[in-house]
Design a protein that fits this description.
Hydantoin permease; binds 4-fluoro-L-phenylalanine; 19 helices; about 75% helix; mainly alpha; about 0% strand; globular
């Protein structure tokens, strides 16, 4: 089979940026800024970008470009024993997609709610009670939340439709529409946010560094974790996308462009979010610190409330905000689906349509649990484990396997062939020393905190099942990796 290619360099960059910019940039980033001391968080965030994020992006682009394969295939070409790492990356990615699609579907439902500002005064009760219809514990599933289920079906169908279209006619074309649209929506939100009375109170808080927080290691760990998440690293996505690059592409430069565009987007949207929160704080006579709830609450509880309080353009702002979430989410979920489908195509010689059908069918079935009334608990539990034992672990294994065993030099030589900016000694230091070190520390602290106290006070039985899902994913990866390949 001839490997498909991107139609243009811009097409590849938009697709990679589309993958990177996602739900993580809109709600996760702002929540982390908020809970880690406002402007103080921006310093570790950018340090993490420069010391680890960009280098790993160069590595993933380099792997895909050199070996011309999805994550499992590229890792195998590095060394037969590494194939498992590639499978765990994409299986972990599929596990994430299962609930990621559900969050997109909440936003999708909220686009329709926006026309009537259906959430009313008590946005919290509306979200958890009316929309999710949340039960009391993870062990009470309570049937489906119908609206969410419909949303999940629609979002999966869109994913299927785009990925079946292929690299150029599906993914590239979709991103050619999604990316300009998303930036326009974001700019509208920023203008709306910063022109509100009281906005600068919020923005000042967003930008003002609190240097005392920099001595707190947890702020640093959160920043490194967010950089991996936001750049879509450790999920085999960037490897798959780079495997469709034409020969002689400038890998290093592309990695810089994609990483910067992604972080610039988060930084920009911060103005919209904190401007709006500043307005809300002023209007209610509260401090910024009092208006925000937890992460999920930021987009679906606090923001609707702020929108309802706006002096004008309420419906418009609401539609733009939730539409932005849907578009950002979709351009990321299609990349997660592609990373897995491409792996099936590479290993078993499947036609694209068949590989996408399998991926979407498995993904959809997995999403069902999160569309139940107890689904939010499972989302929270699985998300908690997969971030650490999925992307952080994969990032670590990649850095060690390629950096130390396969040899960072071979990738460096490859990517420097056509690069305007060369991967210099900074790259070696980052891949071989900083990235593994930071990720090991992240992993150890996470294990420790899990052992110290059950996460979020969930019953041990539910946390156990969450862990079983993760371990099950690892076993599936090992099995897939051990299978004989149809194509070599
Ligand atoms: N980078 C995207 C985001 O920040 O939402 C999508 C994403 C990819 C999230 C991979 C998480 C992930 F593991």
């Amino acid at each position: 089979m001839v490997r498909e290619l991107w139609g243009s360099r811009l097409g590849f960059i938009l697709a990679a940026v589309g993958s990177a910019i996602g739900l993580g940039n809109i709600w996760r980033f702002n929540y982390l800024v908020y809970s880690n001391g406002g402007g103080a968080f921006l310093i570790p965030y950018f340090v993490a970008l420069f010391t680890a994020g960009i280098a790993l992006m160069v590595l993933e682009f380099g792997l895909g470009d050199k070996f011309r394969g999805s994550a499992p295939m590229s890792m195998r070409k590095g060394n037969r024993r590494f194939e498992w790492i590639g499978w765990w990356a994409v299986v972990g990615g599929l596990i994430i997609t299962m609930y990621y699609v559900v969050v997109i579907s909440w936003a999708f439902v909220y686009v329709f709610k926006s026309f009537t500002l259906a959430w009313g005064e008590d946005t919290k009760a509306y979200f958890f009670g009316n929309v999710l219809q949340l039960t009391d514990s993870p062990w009470q599933l309570g049937g489906f939340s119908l609206e969410v289920l419909v949303g999940v079906v629609v979002i999966w169908l869109i994913n299927w439709f785009i990925d079946v279209g292929g690299v150029k006619k599906g993914i590239e074309k979709a991103n050619m529409i999604f990316m300009p649209l998303l930036w326009i929506l974001a700019i509208i939100l920023v203008i709306r946010g910063v022109t509100l009375p009281g906005a600068w109170g919020g923005i000042d808080w967003y930008l003002k560094p609190d240097f005392s927080r920099l001595t707190d290691y947890s702020v640093w760990l959160a920043a490194y974790g967010q950089i991996f998440f936001t750049l879509s690293l450790g999920m085999g996505i960037m490897i798959a996308y780079a495997s469709y690059l034409p020969e002689d592409s400038d890998v290093v430069n592309n990695a810089f462009i994609v990483s910067f565009a992604n972080c610039a987007f988060s930084f920009l949207v911060g103005f919209a979010v904190f401007g709006t929160l500043g307005y809300m704080a002023q209007a209610t006579g509260q401090g910024i610190g009092d208006v925000v709830a937890q992460s999920i609450g930021l987009a679906f509880v606090v923001f609707p409330k702020a929108i309802s309080m706006l002096p004008a353009l309420k419906v418009f702002t609401a539609v733009v905000f939730f539409l932005a979430l849907v578009v950002a989410g979709l351009s990321s979920s299609i990349s997660l689906v592609e990373a897995f489908a491409a792996s099936l195509m590479d290993k078993f010689g499947l036609e694209r349509k068949k590989a996408v059908n399998i991926t979407v069918a498995v993904g959809f079935l997995g999403s069902l649990i999160y569309a139940t009334k107890g689904g939010l608990y499972w989302l929270d539990i699985v998300d908690h484990f997969i971030n650490t034992y999925g992307l952080v672990l994969v990032g670590l294994l990649e850095a060690v396997a390629i950096g130390w065993i396969f040899g960072a030099d071979k990738i460096k030589e490859w990517v420097n062939r056509n690069s305007e900016v060369n991967a210099g000694p900074w790259w070696d230091v980052s891949i071989k020393v900083i990235t593994p070190l930071v990720l090991v520390v992240l992993l150890l602290f996470d294990i420790k905190s899990n052992l110290d106290a059950p996460y979020s006070g969930y019953p041990i039985s539910a946390l156990g099942l969450g862990l079983v899902i993760i371990l099950g994913g690892m076993v599936v990866s090992a099995v897939l990796s051990a299978k004989q390949a149809e194509v070599e």
